[in-house]
Amino acid sequence: MMRSVAFRKIKNHLATLLMLMATAAVLIPLGLIFFHIVKMGISSVSLDFFREIPKPPGEVGGGMANGMVGSLVMIGMASLIGLPVGVFGAIYLVEYGGSKVSTAVRFAADVLSGTPSIITGLVAYSLLVVPMKGFSALAGSVALALIMIPIVLRTTEEQLKMVPGTLREASLALGVPFWRTSLKVTLRSAMSGVLTGILLAIARVAGETAPLLFTALGNQFWSKKVTEPMAAMPLQIFNFAISPYEDWHRLAWAGALMLVTVMFTLSLTARYFSSGRRSD
Amino acid sequence: MPANHVQPIQRVKRINGDLIFRWLTALFALSILAILALMLFEMASQSVPSLRKFGWSFVTASEWDAVEGVFGALPYLYGSVVSSVLALLLATPLSIGAALFITEICPKRWGAVIAPLVELLAAIPSVIYGLWGVLVMAPWLQSTVEPWLIEHLGFIPLFLGAPYGVSMLAAVFILMIMVVPIITSITKEVLLAVPQSQKEAAIGLGATRWEMIRVAILPYGKSGILGAAILGLGRAVGETMAVTMVIGNAPKISLSLLSPAYTMPSVIANEFAEATTKLHGSALMEIGLILLIVTLIINALARLLIWSVSKGPGGAA
Question: Model pTM?
Answer without folding.
Answer: 0.91
